[in-house]
């Protein structure tokens, strides 16, 4: 079967499972904010028509200034990108021909970008038997052999978060052995408030590069917006290879509103926490394994089906639920499915369907 590389392609999954185009399906395969786009953005979008006729500022002065202010950084520490995806490719390009370590299973685009720019790749794998915990010692031992480490925090697809203590240990070691640490914080806004993002470490560590996406939290994957945070010298290097006007002027004109959505983000966190608690408690009752996620998606497996999640995947699709397959996540190879947290109604329907599956199998 030719699996799509990413979630968010429900019609393709239905087609692959031989199901005629259904209009009523529930897409659990894409990890965007289930609360949707903030209303204020929808209202403002209509006013952005005037931006269609203009080229955006190629240096995105206003936008980077706003982001820097928002993050408590200098403007020179920020590079605006066309989503997190462009950030990943720009960073990989900067290490062309060098050696990278990727902690798997994780977002597949790090590997793809590294291959495009001929990086020599090595991997360490989070173990399901160890609840996908971060193998700090193994990573530290490997760091001398590589120029750059790619990490995702919170990690897609497990939803797990590397401890701040471990991050600092990597940065310290990297400072000594000249290894850069790239941390993808695309899902940072979904974390409970007591878990810190890493931007406060930028001043202290020249070997840290952070990347952000605003497409997840504001549910704007088609508008696309992201940014890189790093030391000014690094930002300069990255900028040299960026395609001109790569970020559209419509989304940059929305930035002032996007960056004042603290109450929307807090509402998302509170709502998500409640949903996650309900989902986790029901999954435990139904005897499913789920990864110890802190965000809006998780890995799921029927512990009674050791080797594959193929049957469960098909069962859900037949019930109009579109999960994310895990065939292109190294170390998972289709043994788990990934599910997004969706609206309360959809989550309830998912849990009812999983109950049916359990009853059918017992
Ligand atoms: C971990 C991670 N980083 C980056 C991206 C890309 O984000 P964007 O849509 O902003 O390009 C994704 C998209 O799924 C992702 O899962």
UniProtKB/TrEMBL annotation:
GO BP of this protein: cobalamin biosynthetic process
Essential cofactor(s): pyridoxal 5'-phosphate
Keywords on record: Cobalamin biosynthesis, Lyase, Pyridoxal phosphate
Pfam families with a match to the protein in the record: Aminotran_1_2
InterPro entries assigned to the protein according to its UniProt record, in alphabetical order: Aminotransferase_I/II_large, CobD, PyrdxlP-dep_Trfase, PyrdxlP-dep_Trfase_major, PyrdxlP-dep_Trfase_small
Enzyme nomenclature, EC number: 4.1.1.81
Class of the enzyme per the UniProt entry, highest EC level: lyase
Domain Aminotransferase class I/classII large: 26-354
Catalytic activity: O-phospho-L-threonine + H(+) = (R)-1-aminopropan-2-yl phosphate + CO2
Protein's pathway: Cofactor biosynthesis; adenosylcobalamin biosynthesis
GO MF: pyridoxal phosphate binding; threonine-phosphate decarboxylase activity
Keyword Lyase carried by entry: yes
Function of the protein: Decarboxylates L-threonine-O-3-phosphate to yield (R)-1-amino-2-propanol O-2-phosphate, the precursor for the linkage between the nucleotide loop and the corrin ring in cobalamin.
PANTHER family registered for this protein in UniProt: HISTIDINOL-PHOSPHATE AMINOTRANSFERASE-RELATED, THREONINE-PHOSPHATE DECARBOXYLASE
Name of the protein: threonine-phosphate decarboxylase
Species for this entry: Metabacillus sediminilitoris
């Amino acid at each position: 079967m030719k699996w799509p590389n990413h979630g968010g392609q429900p019609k393709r999954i239905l087609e692959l499972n031989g199901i005629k185009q259904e209009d009523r399906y529930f897409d659990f395969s894409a990890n965007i904010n289930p609360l949707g786009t903030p209303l204020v953005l929808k209202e403002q979008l209509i006013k952005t028509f005037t931006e269609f006729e203009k080229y955006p500022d190629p240096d995105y002065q206003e936008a980077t200034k706003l982001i820097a202010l928002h993050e408590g950084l200098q403007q020179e520490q920020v590079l605006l990108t066309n989503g997190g995806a462009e950030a990943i490719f720009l960073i990989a390009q900067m290490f062309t021909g060098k050696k990278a370590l990727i902690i798997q299973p994780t977002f597949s685009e790090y590997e793809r970008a590294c291959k495009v720019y001929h990086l020599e790749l090595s991997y360490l794998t989070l173990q399901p038997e160890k609840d996908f915990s971060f193998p700090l010692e193994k990573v530290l031992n490997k760091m001398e052999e590589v120029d750059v480490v790619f990490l995702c925090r919170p990690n897609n697809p497990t939803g797990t978060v590397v401890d701040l203590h471990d991050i600092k240990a990597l940065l310290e070691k990297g400072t000594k052995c000249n290894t850069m640490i790239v941390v993808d914080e695309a899902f940072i806004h979904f974390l409970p408030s007591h878990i810190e993002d890493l931007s406060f470490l930028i001043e202290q560590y020249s070997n840290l590069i952070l990347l952000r996406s605003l497409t997840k939290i504001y549910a704007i994957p088609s508008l696309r917006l992201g940014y890189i945070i790093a030391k000014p010298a690094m930002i300069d290097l990255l900028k040299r290879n960026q395609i001109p006007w790569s970020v559209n002027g419509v989304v940059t004109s929305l930035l002032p509103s996007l960056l004042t959505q603290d109450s929307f983000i807090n509402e998302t966190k509170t709502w998500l926490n409640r949903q996650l608690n309900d989902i986790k408690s029901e999954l435990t009752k139904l005897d499913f394994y789920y990864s110890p996620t802190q965000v809006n998606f998780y890995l799921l497996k029927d512990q009674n089906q050791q080797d594959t999640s193929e049957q469960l995947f098909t069962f859900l699709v037949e019930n109009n639920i579109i999960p994310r397959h895990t065939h292109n996540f190294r170390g998972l190879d289709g043994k788990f499915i990934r599910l997004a947290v969706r609206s309360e109604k959809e989550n309830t329907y998912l849990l009812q369907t999983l109950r049916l599956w359990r009853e059918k199998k017992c």
